[in-house]
Amino acid sequence: MSPLLLPKLLCSCIIVFFYASNAYTQTSDFENTLNYIEKNQPKQYNTIDSVFKPFERDSLKMKRLLEFSKASNYYEGACFALNALGITHRNFSNYDQSIRLHQKAKAYAEKAESDELKIISLNMLGVAYRRMDVVKPALDYHTEALKTAYAIINPSKEIKHSIAVSQNSIGNIYLALKQYDFAIIQFNKSLKIEKEGDNKLGLAINYHNIGYAEEAKGNLSVALSNYEKSLEYNNAINSEIGRVICNNSIGGIYLKQKRYKDAKPKINEALDMALHLDDQFYITDSYLNLGQLELEMNQLTSAEKHLKKALNIATSYNLKSSVAESSKLLSEVNQKNENYKAALAYYEKAVEIENTILTEQNLQYVNDIAIEYENENKNNQIKALALENEAVRLRLERNKKILLYTSLLLVVLGIALFILNRTKALKRDKHILTLEQDMLRSQMNPHFIFNSLNSIKLYIINNDKTNAVYYLNKFSKLIRKILMASQEKETSLSDELETMKLYMNIENIRFSNEIDFNITVDPSINMEITKIPSLVLQPFLENSLWHGLSSKAENKKIDLKVSKKSPNFITVEIIDNGIGRLASRKINDQKKLKRNSVGIDITKARLANFSEAFENSYSLEIEDLYENDKPCGTKITLQIPTTKLRPKMHSLATRSF
Q1: Strands 556-566 and 515-521: what pairing?
Q2: pLDDT value, residue 374
Q3: DSSP 8-state class, residue 556
Q4: Exposed, middle or buried by CB within 10 Å (0-12, 13-18, 19+), for 428?
Q5: Is the distance from CB of 285 to CB of 252 less than 8 angstroms?
Q6: Which of 254, 207, 196, 211 is nearest to 233 (CA)?
Q7: CA atoms of 557 and 415, how far apart (whole Å)
Q8: Is 454 helix (H, G, I), strand (E, B) or coil?
Q9: CA of 136: how far to CAs of 93, 209, 436, 458, 478, in Å?
Q10: CA-only gyration radius of the chain, Å
Q11: Alpha carbon distance 532, 525 (integer Å)
Q12: Please, what is the angle between helix 75-91 and helix 115-131, to 10°?
């Protein structure tokens, strides 16, 4: 062996030994920690956190803690492990899995009767939804966390910190809605609590978020001062991700101040660190800043390259704000390149995504691009016609009349085509409006309202105040939901199922509460973000009631099951144990007043219209059920598409807990 190789080999052996011994030490420490937990089972969050803090980012050890806690019925430990795993998935943009884990953590916190752990779990759910820019559930969870925390008379240090987290997150929601003054109020409330607790991470986050809001308001100097304070605290706690965020933000301020030489090293440093950390959220942010810098410096080729990288990553990881921002900047690049058609397409995409978050619309910029594009087209057409006319005039003067007749024919044809297309569009709009009106009329059936009020009146006559008030509240809530749904073409699966519960509660009065109605939903389905046409399930439930169960003597049952058997659809099954369609048809034929199921035809038309925006169309199957060759009910299987033709994606480029 060469004498020069011996020291290198020795050094390598020492390094391998060091890492192996370090891994062994960590494993040994973790086992000792589990032994401590098994003997003492601490209840306070601070104690649990201090014990498992070194291992909370190690998903294998947290899974081990989870299994151990489940086996020992140690609910506090299971809650801590599930929240730690949820944060890990959130940091890798696996938001659906993160939400499922935090929901399980909340359930264990409730079993443990721990307000601290419940508040932490609620905040983690809010943060995950906010990262997805699903504003309503995010705000609901943070508000519930605040209400729970403020109800505690002597809050612990951890509960005070949780209040700061809630207020910071609500501030970030205001940022997403561009309500910057309201956002700053929430950040300052959070900042005050973090100062009292001397929490440097919380101070770094809040100073950065205040800077973001001030930057959006145009106060660049104030924003820069807050970003620099945030960077100081991130350096103090040696937070690499914090330095990435602050360098990106400071570089962005320099960019707006046209200090391009100062901006470039900051942005490049942030990009290198983000690539090293493999954090797709901040890699996207860095590419956006770099592309914007190159756009300002008129380096259009490299700007387009980096902005397309940002767009691809943002699209892959469902970072909606970044998709919108990169699309806007690519629109500007194409506008400078005089490619107005592409510029218009990019900007329309950005506006479409922003409109899924914001309540106000600002279409001035897209209109300007559209006008420029149309003017360019018209100018090109005019030039082409002028050249053609000149050529015709020079070559064939005698063909002027033919050219005139041809031009007139083209004008007439163009007008005819315009009128035809306009007529088709108006007919389509009228058809959609008619469907919505028919849908509302079918839900607001006067017989249903009259019979429901009569049923409630009987409770009043019989002096059954409890049931009268209960069903009157249910009835008023159902009517309100029907009226609200009539104004919207689609609703969340969660709201639709809640409305169906109300509808069945009211209808069940007339059946003396004999109908056993059950709803089952696949846990993998996120009911808040899954959209379906509003009130689409009511006609099917009505058919099951009046054609399947109304003529049955007893044991009346309806099951509503929602599952996801395909990535492109959700499947809704409505199963009743009624008399079957054949027997129902015979009974209906004998009646003088027949009940027509027009609601089904309206629903099919609405589903067809809803499916036009998706890759696949809906499907509906009605199946007669038999037992020993005898009818035993009906099964309705409805597949509703979920994958749209043009995915809408976004995320907010601010930092949060």
Answers
A1: parallel
A2: 41
A3: E
A4: exposed
A5: no
A6: 207
A7: 59
A8: helix
A9: 19, 21, 25, 39, 21
A10: 32
A11: 13
A12: 20
Residue 156 phi, psi dihedral angles, 5° rounding: -75, 175
In angstroms, the Cα distances linking 321 to 291, 325, 328 are: 16, 6, 11
pLDDT digits (tens, 9 = 90+) for 73-91: 999 999 999 999 999 998 8
Is the four-CA dihedral 70, 71, 75, 79 of positive or negative sign?
negative
Q: Which two tokens stand for residue 473?
A: 């509240």
Cα–Cα distance measured from residue 467 to residue 469, given in angstroms and rounded to the nearest whole number: 5
**Dist CA 330 CA 304 (whole Å):** 6
Using DSSP bridges, classify how beta strands 515-521 and 630-641 pair: parallel, antiparallel or unpaired: unpaired
Q: Do 546 and 589 contact (CB within 8 A), yes or no?
A: no
Which two structure tokens, joined as six digits, stand for 174? 């205001």
What sign has the CA pseudo-torsion 477, 482, 486, 488? positive
- 623 - beta bridge partners? 635
Residue pair 284/652 in contact by the 8 Å Cβ criterion: no
Output 612 or 370, whichever has higher pLDDT.
612
Evaluate if residue 159 carries a pLDDT over 60. yes
Q: 């201090």: which residue's tokens?
A: 50
Pick the CATH number of 481-641 from 3.30.110.30, 3.30.470.20, 3.50.50.60, 3.30.565.10: 3.30.565.10
93: pLDDT strictly greater than 70: yes
* Cα angle for residues 620, 621, 626 (degrees, 5° grid): 160
Q: What is the DSSP letter of 614?
A: B
Angle at 389 between CA 384 and CA 392, to 5 degrees: 125
Could you give the CA distance from residue 146 to residue 138 in angstroms, rounded to a whole number?
13
Classified as helix, coil or strand, 634 is: strand
> Which of the four pLDDT bands, split at 50, 70 and 90, describes residue 464?
confident
> Residue range 56-67: average pLDDT?
90
| Alpha-carbon span 103 to 257, nearest angstrom | 44
Instruction: Give 398-406 contacts, CB < 8 A, sequence gap 24+.
Output: none
Spatial separation of the C-alpha atoms in residues 342 and 120, rounded to whole Å? 46
DSSP sequence for 271-303: HHHHHHHT-HHHHHHHHHHHHHHHHHTT-HHHH
Q: Would you say 548 and 622 are in contact if contact means Cβ atoms under 8 Å apart?
A: no
Tokens of 303: 């700007």
Q: Is 70 exposed, middle or buried (0-12, 13-18, 19+ CB in 10 A)?
A: middle
Provide long-range contacts, Cβ within 8 A and 24+ apart, for 43-48: 43/76, 43/112, 43/114, 44/116, 44/156, 45/76, 45/80, 45/114, 45/116, 45/117, 45/120, 45/156, 45/158, 46/156, 46/157, 46/158, 48/76, 48/77, 48/80
Q: Please, which pLDDT band fits residue 164 given cuts at 50, 70 and 90?
A: confident
- Coil, helix or strand for 405? helix
The C-alpha atoms of residue 501 and residue 508 are separated, in whole angstroms, by 10
Signed CA dihedral, 209, 215, 217, 222: sign only = positive
Contact between 492 and 503 (Cβ < 8 Å) = no
Task: Spell out the domain ranges in the chain.
Answer: 481-641
Helices of type H across 511-618: 538-543, 581-590, 598-611
